[in-house]
């Protein structure tokens, strides 16, 4: 089980935690117990995946620059593209890129490279085997104790993490 699997498990468990699942006490226990086991390790993982304060400052200034070049409606509102990004006129795009490069070089040297290295390390961490706690501590459940309303995507995470026990025939 990789660190990525554990994060996906955490997300699915929290997604399921909001449902009451009447008549499925064992399943509710399975969800609650595993959330309890994973809370500390997940908080540590999340803390290690936070951009530096310097990068956040750089990014805020980069966004401010982009806002200045963005197309605005007559009422002054920014016009966004389909993905929610600022629309920058083509003739101003190279000026924006030069301003961002100057910001990186003059005010935030090395900050973007450090962020890229942090992201690369995070991606390697996600592929590593999970080792924060013994995953054998995670509670398992029989397939027959799983509510029918749990969908295939949710079940697949439990199967990947070897948390579903086969029902005895």
Which features characterize this protein?
169 residues, two-stranded parallel ribbon, 59% helix
Could you describe the 3D structure shown?
The chain is an all-alpha fold and 169 residues long. The protein folds into two domains: 84 residues, no CATH class; 75 residues, no CATH class. A two-stranded parallel sheet has the order 1-2. Helix 6 links the parallel strand 1 and strand 2. It is elongated. The chain starts with a helix and ends with a strand. The model has no long low-confidence stretch (mean pLDDT 92).
Tell how many strands the DSSP assignment holds.
Answer: 2
Q: In angstroms, what is the radius of gyration?
A: 23 Å
Low-confidence stretches: none
Q: What is the molecular shape? A: elongated
Task: Tell me the structural class.
Answer: mainly alpha
Main beta-sheet strand count, sense and barrel state: 2 strands, parallel
Number of helices: 6
Please report the distance between the alpha carbons of the first and last residues.
Answer: 27 Å
Summarize model confidence as the mean pLDDT. 92
Strand content: under 5%
Encode the helix/strand succession as letters.
HHHHHEHE
Biggest sheet strand line-up: 1-2
User: How many structural domains are formed by the residues?
Assistant: 2
Note the topology.
Elements: H1 3-17, H2 25-48, H3 53-69, H4 90-107, H5 111-127, E1 141-142, H6 152-160, E2 164-165
Parallel strand pairs: 1-2
Helix pairs in contact: 1-2, 1-6, 3-4
What's this model, at a glance?
The chain is mostly helical and about 170 residues long. Helices cover about 60% and strands about 0% of the residues. The chain folds into 2 domains: about 5-50 and about 130-165, no CATH class; about 55-125, no CATH class.
């Amino acid at each position: 089980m990789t660190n990525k699997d554990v994060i996906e498990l955490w997300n699915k468990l929290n997604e399921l935690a909001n449902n009451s699942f009447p008549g499925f006490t064992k399943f509710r226990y399975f969800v609650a117990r595993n959330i309890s086991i994973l809370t500390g390790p997940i908080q540590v993982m999340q803390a290690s995946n936070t951009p530096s304060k310097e990068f956040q400052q750089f990014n805020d200034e980069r966004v401010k620059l982009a806002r200045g070049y963005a197309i605005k409606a007559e009422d002054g509102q920014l016009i966004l593209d389909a993905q929610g990004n600022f629309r920058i006129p083509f003739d101003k795009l190279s000026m924006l890129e030069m301003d961002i490069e100057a910001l990186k070089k003059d005010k935030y040297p090395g900050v973007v490279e450090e962020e890229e290295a942090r992201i690369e390390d995070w991606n390697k961490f996600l592929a590593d085997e999970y080792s924060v706690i013994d995953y054998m501590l995670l509670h398992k459940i029989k397939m027959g104790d799983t509510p029918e309303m749990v969908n295939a995507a949710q079940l697949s995470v439990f199967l990947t993490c070897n948390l579903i026990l086969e029902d005895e025939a």
